[in-house]
Write a structure and sequence with these properties.
Blueprint: H1 3-12, E1 17-21, H2 29-38, E2 43-47, H3 53-63, E3 68-72, H4 77-85, E4 90-92, H5 98-105, E5 111-112, E6 114-115, H6 118-126, E7 131-134, H7 137-140, H8 142-150, E8 157-160, H9 169-173, E9 181-183, H10 189-194, H11 197-208
Parallel strand pairs: 1-2, 1-9, 2-3, 3-4, 4-5, 6-7, 7-8
Helix pairs in contact: 2-11
The structure holds 3-phosphoglyceric acid.
3-phosphoglyceric acid binds at residues 20, 135, 161-164, 182-185.
Length: 212
Amino acid sequence: MGDKTAKLLSTLKLQPVVPVLIIDDVDTAVPLARALVAGGLKAIEITLRTDAALEAVRRVAAEVEGAVVGAGTILNAKHFEAAVAAGSQFIVSPGTTQELLDAARASEIPLLPGAATASEVMALREEGYQVLKFFPAEQAGGAAYLKSLSSPLAGTLFCPTGGISLKNAKDYLSLPNVVCVGGSWVAPKELVAAGDWAGITKFAAEAFALTA
Ligand code: 3PG
């Protein structure tokens, strides 16, 4: 296993659930990340879907002790480089392109690339990837679908994301080819808007306690 894969796996193994965040107000990033870390969720993905995202990554990387901040929704080389420059310790994409794979190859920061079919998984295995994001998990076929990939594509591990919540997380976490799941449910928009950090820590602690 290469260094980047080992680094990625050690981050993903910190907890059963990686919070997937869409930050609208940059001032919420630090208290939100602190609330998640207090609940045990140290690895945090901030999606590049808002104007606040890169500054949010910067602030969390600089100010939140214990957090391992990553950037998600990385669609191209420009996003990749900006996210790394902001302090991202891992990068997540919903799928892959050659441009993105080239940017990842040139970087020390690991990429968790998205895949949803056997052919996509096989193509990424040829590029040396052993750990992938299964996206969009529920919509693409859910835990039963992912389980059916575990025997023919043995050796590939997944972080399923998309449509996962406290209700179905265990269906995935119990699979032999799942290392963790990702989800936005641990940081509901209403609680973030209300500044209910204690409420978010409670959601995070519930998620942290999930086991297979
Ligand atoms: C997303 O695309 O927003 C992430 O995969 C998270 O999905 P979720 O909001 O269904 O948890």
